[in-house]
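Question (not urgent): is this output format expected?
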Amino acid sequence: MSFKLGGVDTSTLAGVTAILSERPSLGGLSLETVDNEGRDGRAYASPSRTHAQFVFDVIIEGATPTEVIERADNFVGLLDPSLGPRPLQVEPYDSWQWESAMIADEINWGQVTWERGTGFILRGEATIETSGDPSATEIAPQVETFSGSMTFARTLGNTVSYPKLVFSGYSVAGGEPWLVQIGSFSVTIEAGIASGLRCSLDWQTFEFYLLNSSGAPVGSLVPKMSNFNRPALRPGQSVSVSVTRGAVTPSVTFYPNNRKA
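Got this back:
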């Protein structure tokens, strides 16, 4: 087993074996509750999640003490906290990655064997924590395209996700607004968008832009949006997704932004 941090795979480091010994689910979960005055129990307010934590059992082997120390240094260099948070991929979750993770504690190496003829082996624990969203996202995000409307059911991931959609936004000023609907959620976007520009609404990152033909942001959609509520998709839930302006039904690219807790 192995992991990748910032694109570097521990399996490519000579003499290094990293085995995931603690597998997080619902990492950093806490419940916000308040006492019920005058009666038993507590009233539930909301849940929150701060971070996901991964603990690896790391074994460093070599033919000589010098080789083992060099290999341990290479492994620690991969984890160098001065490099800041980086994407983390963990075997066997091959389709998912945690976007922002870094080493969270010191590593204390123990000598398993340290004798000529027997071998030279160091062993320690490496703890990696997420510093951003504690949920994992797909390495190759799911993409759906449609015109007008479609029915979408999430089959990937196991926690709520916040979608993104992109569509050609050309419209004459003063005309009908665009109407975007995702399940019970809806938002309108004022007309008056120049030819060749696309509307990009990403509720995962809360970024709302006008894009040029190269996909670069050239303006903000915020002044044209009727609200800043957030549509949510849940696993197994079917929703209708549509983008219309009167009888106009543009081609739409839809990203469910699947997530794994």
